[in-house]
Amino acid sequence: MTEYFESFEAPEGFKVELLRGEIVMMAGPDVVHNLIVMFVQRQIPVDRWYPLQTQDVDIPAESSEPQPDLVVLPIEAAPESGRLLPAGALAMVVEVVSKTSKLRDYVTKRSIYAGGRIPAYLIIDPFQAKCVVLTEPFGAGEEAGYRNEWTGKFGDPVPLDALGITLDTTEFGTLQ
């Protein structure tokens, strides 16, 4: 499946991910979604971190190549080139929930990212106007998870200890 996925060409305007052996295609996101990603990206200090969009992630021991809405890695961990970033190089991944991605973002990707030992996973949910920060990954496969979970509503400062910053969420928009 991975070999087929790497040669698969998605129609323009679609995001494509390989999640546990399944190819998942999604239409382009809402402007609220893109603005949230932009607001997060602007708050990450680029003198220490590279916040990247549309970057595929290689998760060891998984038939998954997710494409988070945002990945954050230390400058010194950035490879010179390549489509796949190794999960071990990342400090944090960010997913903004859409109408069709809720289960994937809260359940499937939670265990995939934890299994890849990504230190922090930020879920931003514009439908519930909340942020969830997951830290301390453990386990493997579908049983993997995060030991710590912090939840706050839009407007609350969000502690992103993995990056040494506090995220301002006052400009985050909501969806119905």
| Class from helix and strand fractions | alpha+beta
Give Rg in angstroms.
15 Å
Low-confidence segments: none
- Characterize the largest beta sheet: strand count, sense, and whether it forms a barrel: 6 strands, mixed
The main sheet orders its strands as 3-5-7-8-9-10
Percentage of residues in DSSP E strands:
35-45%
Mean pLDDT metric: 91
Estimated helix fraction = 10-25%
Number of helices: 3
Count of distinct strands: 12
Gap between N and C termini? 35 Å
- Return the string of H and E elements: HEEHEEEEEHEEEEE
The 3D shape can be described as globular
Task: Briefly summarize what is shown.
The protein is of the alpha+beta class and 176 residues long.
Characterise this structure:
The chain has helices spanning 2-7, 31-43, 102-115, and strands spanning 14-19, 22-27, 49-52, 56-58, 70-74, 84-86, 92-96, 120-125, 130-138, 145-153, 158-160, 165-167. The mean pLDDT is 91. 36% of the residues are buried. It is globular. It is α+β, with helices and mostly antiparallel strands and 176 residues long. It starts with a helix and ends in a 9-residue tail after the last strand. The strands form four sheets. Strands 3-5-7-8-9-10 form a six-stranded mixed beta sheet. Strands 1-2 form a two-stranded antiparallel ribbon. Helices cover 19% and strands 35% of the residues. The protein contains three helices and twelve strands.
